[in-house]
Write a structure and sequence with these properties.
This protein is of the alpha+beta class and 624 residues long.
């Protein structure tokens, strides 16, 4: 009986220790997003953003003025509310728990400077209310579960003490084990200890290796908010970030950038995964191989390298199919005019093109020119902060283990390569999302839901979300754009590209790539009454403290088009504006941009290739 008691004590200690370990790793963090399941719909002017700080993504809720946010809570156990209050001026905040008409203030504070806040929350069912007076950013707003370990730990210590004390008090409490049982117990203890030691060593080694663990691990850690360097990209002194040469991998896209950057909630744009091969040539561009000679060199940014589509659907490949002549893709996402000038000089001209097409993107080329100039002036020290992305809103402690990430990455890799799995089959399938919108219902009216427009056009329901930073550029009239440093830098780069081309026998053509708002704004203005459209567009300006009426935006819609066209006319540079061709395709009821992305879909690239092919043929280019 006494030996059985001793064994029961050992079993109870083991179970209690396992319970403590299990509960420690199951402590969960819930992040509160404006568009999350817990958020209550309101007339708040706050905006959700995701920023990269210190190698991690930090979710932010921007409240530019007095505001009140509410989140539905159901806490069965005590928890902790954590956030950092970042004032944009003179500001204060208030945190309250609301149940029916009962409102209990649990914290108040004046935010004269950024301050970390941690508040204990009791078990509660109701609403968490956050109020701010003055401009305030709620950074990394989250609720963290609390492990109540004091009583279990004290119980474990007491049981362990009894296990040690009882045999000393009376020897018959000592468990009688045979030699074989003692040997088995020792082997089991050594095995468990070795396994725990191996897991601990593996965790430490994986953390030390970090970004060197490859793309699979990078994808797992990305979901947790870790901003690892993308292994597809390399930092170079001459260009900044650019693609590595000789890549043989795949790309997978589920949501567009307007969603994953947090401007529009994923609920209004269900994920549709596109998976395709991703290859770069020996020069680091999205071509099957380096070719010489070539007829056309395609220069540009993400609208040219088309990283959201297979390379064969990008406009350079579609142009080649129409011309029957080699068109080499020299586009790189994030490049501005100065980098494109260097690509022309360093790579394209050595392959003797007859035409060099510069795809000028209206959304950010002027601003990218300024950023790159700052980088050059600071000898590479000034770098643009990369955009953040939406991370998992519910994370347990065990999710943060690198060993767990490795297991998941290995499982994903096995699924990708195992014959017959869905991802493996997807590699060879067509990628045609957004090309044929759903038919519009009889009598369907235009609508707007949290950033997503739905507009019936030519019998089809087009779905459109706008990219706020690009939409905001429509605030600038031509005079302000002309006065920007980025415009002077852009002009200088294009002038040098023209001279480089002339010296090498290549004609420079500027192809104007409009951003999404420029193409869809006329349709939206026809589809919505002015006050209704203004209210919808205010959604995109949340968190900025400023709004611009749609009439003013429409007045500046083609300001940059005219600026670039006039400059090209002065310099004798052939100029093609794609805006009319893209608008015409939209009027036929066909999306030319992904619904939730700022970039063209395959139809948009096809329109660009068709318009450019006709333009070049009209000029007798490319010459045989």
């Amino acid at each position: 009986m006494k030996q059985a008691t001793a064994r029961l004590l050992l079993v109870a200690e083991a179970l209690l220790a396992l319970w403590l370990v299990r509960n420690f790793f199951y402590v969960t963090t819930w992040r509160l997003y404006l568009d999350g399941r817990a958020a209550e719909r309101s007339g708040s002017s706050a905006a959700q953003r995701f920023e990269v700080e210190g190698g991690r993504v930090v979710p932010e809720i921007l409240s530019p003025a007095d505001d009140r946010l509410r989140f539905t809570l159901r806490l069965e156990r005590p928890a902790t509310l954590r956030f950092e209050a970042r004032p944009g001026g003179r500001a204060s905040y208030e945190v309250a728990l609301v149940r029916g008409r009962d409102r209990k203030i649990v914290a108040r504070g004046d935010a004269g400077r950024p301050s970390a806040v941690s508040l204990a929350l009791p078990p509660f069912e109701g609403a968490l209310e956050l109020a701010n007076h003055g401009p305030l950013t709620w950074a990394d707003l989250r609720i963290v579960g609390r492990l109540r370990f004091a009583l279990p730990l004290a119980t474990l210590v007491m049981l362990a003490g009894l296990s040690l004390a009882l045999p000393r008090w009376e020897g018959s409490f000592a468990p009688a084990l045979s030699k074989r049982q003692r040997s088995a117990a020792l082997e089991t203890a050594l095995l468990l200890g070795g396994a725990l030691g191996a897991l601990g060593a593996a965790e430490l080694a994986l953390r030390a290796l970090g970004p060197r663990l490859g793309a699979g691990m990078a994808a797992q850690r990305r979901d947790l908010g870790e901003a690892w360097p993308n292994p597809r990209w390399q930092e170079t002194k001459r260009y900044g970030l650019r693609l590595r040469a000789g890549l043989e991998t795949f790309a997978e896209v589920s949501h567009g950038d307007i969603v994953w950057m947090g401007f529009v909630p994923p609920e209004v744009s269900p994920a549709r995964t596109r998976r395709f091969a991703f290859h770069t040539d020996a020069e680091g561009f999205r071509n099957a191989a380096v070719r010489d000679p070539i007829a056309v060199a395609a220069l540009g940014d993400s609208f040219t390298d088309a990283m959201t589509l297979p390379a064969e659907q990008a406009w350079p490949a579609r142009l080649e199919a129409r011309l029957g002549r080699p068109v080499q893709n020299y586009g790189t996402a994030g490049f501005g005019p100065q980098q494109e000038e260097r690509v022309l000089s360093d790579f394209a001209l050595r392959h003797r093109p007859g035409v060099a097409v510069l795809a000028f993107f209206a959304g950010n080329d002027l601003f990218n020119a300024e950023t790159f100039d700052d980088r050059e002036r600071s000898a590479g020290g000034a770098r643009e902060r990369p955009p953040g992305w939406r991370l998992k809103d519910t994370v347990a402690r065990f999710d943060e283990l690198y060993v767990m990430s490795l297991v998941r990455a290995a499982g994903q890799r096995l699924q990708e390569t195992w014959p017959g799995t869905a991802p493996a089959r997807a590699d060879g399938g067509p990628v045609e999302p957004d090309l044929d919108p759903l038919p519009a219902a009889p009598g369907q009216r235009p609508s707007f839901d949290r950033g997503m427009f739905t507009v019936p056009v030519a019998g089809r329901a087009l779905r459109v979300a706008l990219m706020p930073p690009y939409l905001a550029t429509l605030r600038f009239p031509a005079a302000e754009l002309r006065a920007r440093r980025g415009w002077a830098l852009t002009r200088q780069s294009i002038e040098r590209m023209q001279r480089l081309g002339q010296a090498s026998g290549a004609e420079l053509v500027v192809m104007f790539v409009p951003f999404k708002s420029q193409v869809y704004l006329p349709l939206l203005r026809r589809s919505f009454p002015p006050d209704e459209l203004d209210r919808a567009l205010r959604f995109y300006f949340r968190g900025t403290g400023s709004t611009v009426p749609s009439r003013a935006l429409a007045g500046n819609r083609l300001a940059l088009n005219g600026l670039v066209q006039s400059f090209c006319a002065e310099r004798g540079i052939p100029f093609l504006d794609l805006t009319p061709a893209l608008e015409a395709e939209v009027e036929r009821g066909r999306n030319v941009y992904f619904a939730d992305d700022a970039h063209w879909n395959a139809a948009g690239h096809e329109v660009a290739a068709a318009a450019l092919a006709e333009f070049l043929h009209g000029r007798g280019q490319p010459r045989p």
